[in-house]
Design a protein that fits this description.
Length: 268
């Protein structure tokens, strides 16, 4: 197979993950103008809150991107998408988990020899029933990923809104939130297992410093006070670790209650 980096001779590849909290709302707040300036190679979007036919695909194409959308069956809910400068060699909508696919939570593309899995993980904050589903999803999702992670020939990126803070450094108030969905012991233990299977937290590989978050509540002026959570990731398989050249969070980019996070891979 021709390597992805064949198409990017002497260049790095930048992959952004961004929960938009509604793609039409984000566009109205300047998303397209920001992308035109930012010029990443790949954007993984979560929480589209729109059907495919309601998204202004032509506007993204005019910026030079190939667009793939996977909406939830429920109108105005969930949904994921990927736009990329390079045309995918293959696209897979969903992950084979019935409820997750109904809710439009996973889309996968191949770019040369790079597999990008973009995922909007469930939140459990709305009540016990959704928290139970969240834990079921985490268990089943890890099973879904296992063969991809264990295949040493697969260069894997798992981007998305994970809706989980991994460690105390990733949340502004770890003590006060110890019983909050998104920072529960069982969720954090799942993250331990996820990384132990052969995945790398690309952000923490580059950035050891605290007070760096990707989501803030709309309440109590949380964003201006930086009382946030780091729940958005662009994680990579172990065989890409040596190619991580940069990873960062962009809190000053404001089209959503989340902000973009990105990873840059260097050409070998």
């Amino acid at each position: 197979m021709v390597s992805l980096f064949y198409f990017y001779t002497n260049q790095n590849m930048k992959i952004v993950s961004y929960n938009l909290n509604g793609i039409r709302s984000a566009i109205s707040k300047g998303l397209l103008e920001w992308i035109k300036e930012d010029q990443a190679d790949v954007y993984c979007f979560q929480e589209l809150k729109a059907n495919k036919e309601d998204i202004d695909t032509a506007a993204f194409e005019a910026l030079g991107y190939h667009c793939q959308w996977y909406s939830a069956q429920k109108k105005g809910y969930s949904g994921v998408g990927i736009i990329s400068k390079l045309k995918p060699t293959s696209i897979e909508y969903g992950c084979g988990l019935t409820q997750a696919d109904f809710e439009g939570r996973v889309i996968q593309i191949m770019l040369g020899d790079l597999l990008i899995v973009n995922t909007y993980f469930p939140s459990g904050s709305s009540g016990d029933e959704r928290q139970v589903y969240k834990m079921e999803f985490l268990h089943d999702y890890l099973d879904f990923l296992q063969s991809k992670i264990k295949n040493t020939n697969t260069k894997l990126i798992v981007a998305g809104d994970y809706n989980v803070c991994h460690k105390a450094i990733d949340i502004h108030d770890p003590v006060g939130n110890k019983n909050s969905s998104g920072f529960l012991p069982e969720e954090r233990a799942w993250m331990d297992t996820f990384f132990a299977t052969g995945m790398v937290d690309s952000f923490r590989h580059i950035n050891p410093n605290p007070h760096q978050y990707s989501w803030w509540s709309f309440r109590a002026n949380a964003r201006n006070n930086n009382k946030g959570w780091r729940i958005d990731y662009v994680n990579v398989s172990e065989n890409l670790k040596s190619q991580i050249s940069d990873a960062a969070i962009l809190p000053d980019v404001k089209h959503s209650d989340h902000c973009p996070v990105y990873l840059t891979l260097k050409n070998k």
